[in-house]
Amino acid sequence: MKEYLLGLIKDKKRMDGRGLSTYREPITIETGISKKAEGSARVKIGNTEVNVGVKMELGTPYPDSPDEGTIIVTAELIPLSNPNFESGPPGIQATELARIVDRGIRESHYLDFKKLCVKKGEKIWMVLIDIYSINDEGNLFDAAALGAIAALRDAKVPVIKDDKVQYGELTAKKLPLDKEAPILMTIHKLGDEFIVDPISAEEEAVSARLSIAIKGDRICAMQKGGADGLSLPEVEKAIDLAYTQVEELKKALK
Amino acid sequence: MAYTKRFDGRGFEEIRKMSAEVGIISRAKGSARFQIGDTIAIAAVHGPRELHPRFLRKPDKGVLRCDYDMVSFSVSERKRPGSSRRSMEISHVTGKSIEPVLDLSKYPNTVIDVFITIPQANAGTRCAGICAASLALADAGIPMKDLVVAISVGKAGDKVVMDLTKEEEDHAEGATDIPVAMTPRNGEYTLLQLDGDISKDELKEALVLAKKGCDEIYTLMQKTLRDSFKEKK
C-alpha cells in the first residue's frame, strides 16, 4: 500500500483522486449534539467523525494566576473508532492530540481566561474540553481542533447556586471567546510532496507532518511529528500551504 | 404519595421513543446506533481477529470481548474519562448476555471485539448498549442464533414501570432498577440484574413487562437490519 501511494504521489496523485491541497468533502459541523454537555459538536471530514463536549466545573485558581480560569483538553481515541486503537488509559497519540488542540486555543487567547474568574484567588471556571474519535478514517487532528472550537462556541455557562454548579440549568451567557478562532491545519509530507487531510492509508505512508494553528494572520502553535526531519524550505512550504487552507476550514465553522 | 402520573407523561407500560441505525462507523466490520429516549448507545465490532496475548486464545472457539464505557459529557456531572469498576462490570455482563446467541466454534483462536460507547445517558445505558452491540454483530455478519434485546424495567415509587428514566431512578420514594436482556426466540433471560427493593409478585409483574418491551424492541431491530440490506442492494 505504501509503495502504491508513493508511486501515485510522484505524479501528484492521490488514492481517492483528490488534489494535494484539497480537504475531503463535505466538512460538516453540527452543534448541540449532547443534552448533558454545556456545549458540544460533531465534526465530520469525509467519513472521519469526532465528537467534542464542553463541561464546566468550578475550581480554585493556580497561585500564579489567581484571577484566571483555565481549560483542560482530553482526547480519547476509543477503540470503537479504529481497529488499531487499544483500550486503556490515553496513549501518546491521544495525549499529543489533546495537547496540540489545547495549545491552539490557549496560545491564541481565543478564550479570555480572566473572564472565567468567578472570585479572585478563590473560584474560577475550569472549561473541560473532551474529544472522542468516533470513526477514524484519517486526520483526527484537524477534525478535533475544529470540534473544540465549535463546542466552545456552542457552550453556555451553567447556573451557580450556593457556590455549586446547577448542571442542566444553563444561563444565556456564552463563553468569553474572541471573534477570530484559531484554525489547526496539519500538513503531511508524502514522498516529496505535501498534502492536507490524509486518509488512514496515507497517514501510514507519510514521513513527516507539521501541525500549524493560525489565528487571523498569526501563527499561534506548531507541532512537528513523524519520523523524518523537515528542511527550512520544506517548513516554509508547509506553512504557506496551511495559509491557503485557513479560509476553507473557517467556512465550515460558520 | 402514589406515583400516578409519570414525570415524562408516558403510560406505565410505555417505552420511550426509539430509533436504530446500522453501518455508522466505516472503520468497523459492523456498527450500530441505538437510541431510547435521551439515552444513546453506539457499538462497533472489530474481528474476528488474532487474539493477543496468546495464552487467552482458545483452540476450539473464538473469544467474545465486550467493552462498555461512557463519554465524559454523557452525564450531568462530568465522568472521568476511562474505565471504572462500574464500566468493567457492565462490560462483563454485556458479554455474558450476548454470548449465548453466537456460535464461536467457527472462529478458533480469534477474538471478536465489541466496543460500546454511550454518548448521552438518561438511564438504561447497559440495555441500550446490548441492543446496539447485538445490531453491530449482525451488521458485521457474525452468525447469530437470535438477536439479544434488552430493556430496563422496575419500580418508581409504588408503581411497576417500563423503561425507567434517570428522574424515575432517583424517585424520592425509592426505585428499583431491573435491567433485563432476552433472546426472544426461546424466551430466555441472558441478563438479569436488580438494584432496589421489590416484592416477589411485583418482580414477576416486572419480568412479564420486560418481555413485552423486548418484543417491541425486537421488531424495531429486525426492521432496522432488513432495511439495511435493502439499501445495500
Structural commentary:
The complex is a heterodimer of chains A (254) and B (233). By secondary structure, chain A is an alpha+beta fold. Chain A has 5 helices and 12 strands. In chain A, helix 2 packs across helix 3. The two termini of chain A are 37 Å apart. The mean pLDDT of chain A is 96. Chain B has a single domain, classed as GHMP Kinase, N-terminal domain (Ribosomal Protein S5, domain 2, 2-Layer Sandwich). In chain B, 28% of the residues lie in helices and 30% in strands. Chain B contains 4 helices and 9 strands; from the N terminus they run E-E-E-E-H-E-H-E-E-H-E-E-H. In chain B, helix 1 crosses helix 2 (125-139). Chain B starts with 17 loop residues before the first strand and ends with a helix.
SSE string of chain B, helices as H and strands as E? EEEEHEHEEHEEH
User: Over the alpha carbons, how many angstroms does the gyration radius of chain A reach?
Assistant: 19 Å
CATH class type of chain A: Alpha Beta
* The level-1 CATH class of chain B: Alpha Beta
**What name does the CATH topology of chain A carry?**
Ribosomal Protein S5, domain 2
Task: Please identify which CATH superfamily of chain B we are dealing with.
Answer: GHMP Kinase, N-terminal domain
Overall SS class of chain A = alpha+beta
Please trace the helix and strand order of chain A, writing H or E for each element: HEEEEHEEHEEEEHEEH
Strands of chain B, count:
9
Shape descriptor of chain B:
globular
Counting copies of identical and different chains, the oligomeric state is heterodimer
Residue share in helix of chain A? 25-40%
> What's the main sheet of chain B like?
5 strands, mixed
What is the name of the CATH superfamily of chain A? GHMP Kinase, N-terminal domain
Shape annotation of chain A: elongated
- The residue ranges of chain A in which pLDDT falls below 50 over 5 or more consecutive positions are none
Question: Which chain pair shows the most residues in contact?
Answer: A-B, 35 and 34 residues
The proportion of residues forming helix of chain B, as a percent range, comes to: 25-40%
